[in-house]
Specification:
- By secondary structure, the protein is α+β, with helices and mostly antiparallel strands.
- The protein has one domain: Porin (Beta Barrel), CATH 2.40.160.20.
- The chain is built from 2 helices and 12 strands, in the order αβββαβββββββββ.
- The strands form 2 sheets. Strands 1-2-3-5-6-9-10-12 form an 8-stranded antiparallel β-barrel. The protein has a 4-stranded antiparallel β-sheet with strand order 4-7-8-11.
- It is elongated, with a radius of gyration of 27 Å.
């Protein structure tokens, strides 16, 4: 009888303890905003350097910086966002020489000269659902993004074609267009102090491309000359940031 009463008492105490644990408030991840900076690495067609591929962008690794954050709406589920600026470089002398040689070989003309100015500068406006996993003071963030790429400039190419004592000029204009983009983010943060964290982030951004316009006598390029009408953009950003919680 005593053993039975003791067992019942233990079970009752465990039940009350478990109920008390369930009723205690849990610490969920807090909303935050972070200042980030790092490198943006072009991928796919955006990074290619070939004459034959009209979508090759000749983009370079460059700096990126911006703001990233999330507002938690239910436990560790949040709506996150990223606003960032990227510099993906300009066409180098070997790049424009490669293009000039390509035009010259394909068009079978006396000479072709290509000049390039301006750089790849754009802004990313991305956002989407984010979920965070916690382990001690470490926070793992995973997010799916969709949004917009807004270009402020792209390399402008001027192509001079000389044939039969005549010269024709074609210009591939710098673009300030915008396009839909999608991607995702993975980040690991360390809450080193109350209300503060530092961490690394990897953002993937991909877009079918911004429109590129061409002016001048495009007939000089015939049916085989390289003409770019849309520039696909894809990149992986590797950044470090410091964030404040709210």
């Amino acid at each position: 009888m005593k053993k039975t009463l003791t067992l019942i008492s233990i079970i009752t105490l465990i039940s009350f303890y478990a109920k008390a644990q369930d009723s205690e408030p849990k610490d969920y991840v807090k909303s935050y905003i972070a200042l980030i900076g790092g490198l943006s690495n072009p991928m796919g067609n955006f990074s290619q350097k070939t004459y034959e591929n009209n979508q090759a962008g000749f983009a370079k690794r460059g700096a990126t910086f911006g703001l990233e954050g999330a507002v938690y709406v239910y436990k560790n589920l949040a709506i996150g966002a990223l606003i960032s600026f990227q510099d993906q470089g300009e066409l180098t002398t070997p790049d424009v020489q490669l293009l000039a040689n390509g035009y010259n070989n394909v068009l079978k003309v006396n000479s072709t000269l290509v000049q390039g100015v301006n750089r790849y500068h754009n802004l990313n406006f991305m956002g989407g659902p984010q979920y965070s996993f916690t382990y001690g003071k470490f926070i793992l963030d995973l997010r799916v993004d969709a949004g917009l790429i807004k270009s402020s400039s792209t390399p402008q190419l001027t192509i001079y074609v000389s044939k039969n004592n005549t010269s024709q000029t074609i210009t591939q204009n710098s673009s300030t267009g915008s396009a839909f983009a999608y991607g995702g983010k993975a980040g690991l943060r360390w809450a080193f102090a109350d209300g503060w964290d530092i961490g690394v982030r990897f953002n993937y951004v991909k877009s079918d491309g911004i429109k590129i316009s061409t002016t001048g006598d495009v007939s000089a390029l015939g049916n085989t000359g390289r003409i770019v009408t849309k520039q696909p953009i894809s990149e992986i950003q590797s950044t470090f940031g410091i964030g404040v919680h709210f």
